[in-house]
Structure formats: structure tokens, C-alpha cells
């Protein structure tokens, strides 16, 4: 063997020996390799924040990495949505969001600092929150059909009122669509949240409203308010005697509040699938469901990324129709 051949052979052997080492050096670290942030577009203490924090605590154990909730509040979820949309698509910034930023804002605002349909990678629709259509205890209506009959009789001369926790929101738009589809002349009265709305309905100042089961449940059970229908496919565990819209013989207004988890667009698909799978496992744990979902009358969904993407596409069309029916605009 010539000197040149010996040198070439030695170099080949050395390179071959280094390949496994080089391969290991270039392999990406298992996810997550550092803390993960979940951005919540609401203040601490609300349903989105509470669910995100409970999920973060469990993900911390699953991933052996800190999972931190960051509250970026304001502007109907716009501030939080913009922050996430402009974050690195590496799986370390996630977004706990609702219909507000994802399927409503594009119809309510002429210009947004993010594109709801292009700037996010859907991970999972986590839960849905059924809504209850309710009236004052003093109302003559004991069923949804009776309420509709009363509203039609009142007509334009003395129109009945419906309240909401804010113009253009998940509570307002379904009721506007309800009035339209039933041919009712009703006046919308917006409030700054559910807290000031509930006493007004109890006092009979407002004829009807829709709010989440967990928010209104205590007032229904105490007899201060009457629940006429629940907006969900099945009856609520918390209010088993209240019929669904379908059971009441009325087209469901689909007033269901959803909380989902998303990542910035461009996040690798395998990473999105992993996060979705880990989240699903937690949501379906008996103890987690009992304490964090069933306890608040939520419904666990735990969808796949593809299912969530399809849901958002359908809901985008639904919310567009509702905004047009209500004439709402937040510009």
C-alpha cells in the first residue's frame, strides 16, 4: 500500500468514526428544552386564565420544564393575538384563545395587526362552555316557545330587551341572530361584563340574556332567574332539567364559548401534533376533568389540530353571518 493510500484510508476511518458523534451533535434537543409560555389575552381569574394555569401546571410535570402563563390583556384579545402572531414559530410561545380573536374580530374590525386565518397554527380546541338562555323569575315565559310568543306580541311598539356582556361578543351576536331567525323585534342593551348584567335581569329591567352555565348556575338554582334553554348538543350536567334549544323546538343559536390552544404559524407540524397529544392526555385524565372541567360545567373537546382547524373555518363563516345580522362594528 502506498503512502497516499494509507493516508486516505486513515482519513476515511477517522471520518467514519466521527459520524455518530456528529449526528448526535446535530440532532435537535427533545421538546421542550426550555420554559414554554402560554399567552392568555385576559386578566388572571377568568375562565381562560384558570384553564390555562391548570393546564400549565400539568404540562410542567409532563414536560419537566416550566410552563408559564403570561397575561397580555385588552382590545378584545387583539394584544395577545398580535404578540403570539409575531413570536418565533418554535413551540415555546402558545396562545390560549377564544372566538373573539380567531373568528369574530376579522368581521368586527376593518383592520387588525394580525391575520387570524394565516398567523396561527391550531393545536387543539380544549373545551366548550355551553350558554344558558335565561329570563327574570317574574317573566310570564316559562318556556322558550312562550318567550318567542311574548316577544312577537310585543312587536315594535313595546319591544322586549336582551342584554349582553358587551357589543360584538359571544353573548351579543348569537342573540342578535336568534331575534333575526325568529322574526323578533328586540332591543340590545350592552353592559360592561356579566357582573352588572345579571342584577338587571334579576330585577326585571332586562327581558332576557345568555351567559355561561358556570356564571349563571347559582342564580338559576336559587330561583332568582329562570333558564329556558341551554345552547349545546346535550343537556348540561349542572342544569339537567333545562332543555336544549333543539328540545325546545327552536333552532340552536350556537352560543357556545370555546377555548383553544394555538401556536404561531410555521411551527413544525410534528411539534404541533406532539403538543396536541400531550394536552389531550391531560384533558382526558379523570382527576383533571373532575376538578378543572366538570366542576365548571365545561365540556372537554381535546380535538386534534386538523379538527380544530376545520372548526375555526366553519366558525369563521358563522360569526361573519352573525356580525352582519347584528350590524355590530368595533372600529
Write the layout of secondary structure elements.
Layout: H1 3-26, E1 36-40, H2 47-63, E2 67-71, H3 78-85, E3 93-97, H4 99-108, E4 120-136, H5 144-154, E5 160-164, H6 172-181, E6 186-190, H7 194-202, E7 208-212, H8 213-221, E8 225-231, E9 256-264, H9 269-283, H10 286-293, E10 299-300, H11 305-326
Parallel strand pairs: 1-2, 1-3, 5-6, 5-7
Antiparallel strand pairs: 3-9, 4-7, 4-8, 4-9, 4-10
Compose a concise summary of this entry.
With 331 residues, the chain is α/β, with parallel strands linked by helices.
List keywords for this structure.
331 residues, ten-stranded mixed beta sheet, globular, alpha/beta
Give the overall shape.
globular
User: Spans with pLDDT under 50 lasting ≥5 residues?
Assistant: none
Number of strands: 10
Q: Per DSSP, what share of the residues sits in E-state strands of 2 or more residues?
A: 15-25%
User: On the 0-100 scale, what is the average pLDDT?
Assistant: 91
Distance between the termini: 83 Å
Annotation field: number of helices: 11
Helix and strand succession?
Answer: HEHEHEHEHEHEHEHEEHHEH
Helix content: 40-55%
Structural class given helices, strands, pairing? alpha/beta
Give the biggest beta sheet. 10 strands, mixed
- For this structure, the quaternary state is single chain
Rg for CA atoms: 25 Å
Amino acid at each position: 500500500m502506498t503512502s497516499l493510500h494509507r493516508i486516505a484510508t486513515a482519513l476515511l476511518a477517522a471520518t467514519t468514526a466521527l459520524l455518530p458523534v456528529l449526528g448526535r451533535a446535530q440532532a435537535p434537543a427533545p421538546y421542550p428544552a426550555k420554559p414554554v409560555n402560554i399567552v392568555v389575552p385576559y386578566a388572571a381569574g377568568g375562565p381562560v386564565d384558570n384553564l390555562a394555569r391548570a393546564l400549565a401546571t400539568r404540562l410542567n410535570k409532563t414536560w419537566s420544564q416550566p410552563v408559564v402563563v403570561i397575561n397580555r390583556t385588552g382590545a378584545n384579545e387583539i394584544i395577545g393575538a398580535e404578540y403570539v402572531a409575531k413570536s418565533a414559530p418554535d413551540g415555546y410561545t402558545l396562545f390560549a384563545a377564544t372566538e373573539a380573536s380567531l373568528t369574530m374580530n376579522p368581521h368586527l374590525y376593518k383592520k387588525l395587526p394580525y391575520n387570524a386565518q394565516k398567523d396561527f397554527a391550531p393545536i387543539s380546541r380544549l373545551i366548550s362552555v355551553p350558554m344558558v338562555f335565561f329570563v327574570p323569575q317574574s317573566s310570564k315565559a316559562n318556556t322558550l316557545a312562550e318567550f318567542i310568543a311574548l316577544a312577537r306580541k310585543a312587536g315594535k311598539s313595546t319591544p322586549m330587551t336582551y342584554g349582553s356582556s358587551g357589543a360584538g361578543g359571544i353573548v351579543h351576536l348569537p342573540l342578535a341572530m336568534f331575534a333575526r331567525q325568529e322574526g323578533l323585534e328586540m332591543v340590545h342593551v350592552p353592559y360592561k361584563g356579566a357582573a352588572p348584567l345579571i342584577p338587571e335581569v334579576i330585577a326585571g329591567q332586562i327581558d332576557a340574556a345568555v351567559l355561561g352555565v358556570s356564571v349563571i348556575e347559582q342564580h338559576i338554582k336559587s330561583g332568582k332567574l329562570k333558564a329556558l334553554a341551554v345552547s349545546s348538543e346535550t343537556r348540561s350536567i349542572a342544569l339537567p332539567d333545562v332543555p336544549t334549544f333543539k328540545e325546545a323546538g327552536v333552532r340552536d343559536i350556537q352560543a357556545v364559548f370555546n377555548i383553544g390552544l394555538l401556536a404561531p404559524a410555521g411551527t413544525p407540524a410534528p411539534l404541533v401534533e406532539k403538543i396536541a397529544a400531550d394536552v389531550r392526555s391531560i384533558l382526558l385524565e379523570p382527576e383533571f376533568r373532575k376538578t378543572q372541567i366538570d366542576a365548571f360545567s365545561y365540556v372537554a373537546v381535546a380535538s386534534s389540530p386538523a379538527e380544530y382547524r376545520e372548526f375555526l373555518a366553519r366558525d369563521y363563516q358563522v360569526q361573519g353571518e352573525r356580525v352582519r345580522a347584528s350590524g355590530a362594528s368595533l372600529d
